[in-house]
Amino acid sequence: MLAALSQQRNMPQVSAPGPGNQADAMMKVKSGVDLITQALPSLGAGTPLYNAALKALRDLSKHLAQGGPTAGVQQTQLQDLLRGTLQRALFAKIMGQRAAQGQEQNPNQPAGPSPQMAQAPMPSMALPGA
Predict the structure, then answer these.
(1) Which residues contact 54 (CB under 8 A, 6 or more apart)?
(2) pLDDT digits (tens, 9 = 90+) for 48-100
(3) Is the model's pTM score more than 0.70?
(4) If you average pLDDT over residues 104-126, what whole number do you get?
(5) In the predicted model, what is the mean pLDDT of the chain?
(6) Do residues 94 and 1 touch, judged by C-beta distance below 8 A?
(7) How far apart are CA 103 and CA 128, in angstroms?
(8) CB pairs under 8 A, 24+ apart, for 6-10?
(9) What secondary structure does DSSP assign to the chain, as a single string?
């Protein structure tokens, strides 16, 4: 499981974003605009932060499509956010368990990956053509 998480984290970035990537980015900006809008009344009218937030809202709103996002887009965005949070939590838990196991085996050794784990394992048989 750890290998799958690590592999997913190291996947190459999209070299030429397409319409799906752009729509995802716009939804993230829209979510940010919504959060700033909700926070605006609590900032105190006339304060420098209030004025900067209001200016950002005006500037960003010019470039966003009017109307609310579809429920499907919102659901996908929330699922992606939840999935990422769960993966990070699982990864942190696994790494914490590994560090604790390393400390139990050798309390004098600092926490972290052991030198044996840092090296790639030897192959059990020669590969064809080698």
Answers:
(1) 40
(2) 999 999 999 888 888 776 665 566 667 777 788 888 888 898 999 999 888 88
(3) no
(4) 56
(5) 74
(6) yes
(7) 40
(8) 8/87
(9) -HHHHHHHHTPPPPSS--HHHHHHHHHHHHHHHHHHHHHGGGG-TTSHHHHHHHHHHHHHHTTSPSSPPPHHHHHHHHHHHHHHHHHHHHHHHHHHHHHHHHHHH-TTSPSS--HHHHSPPPPSSPPTT-
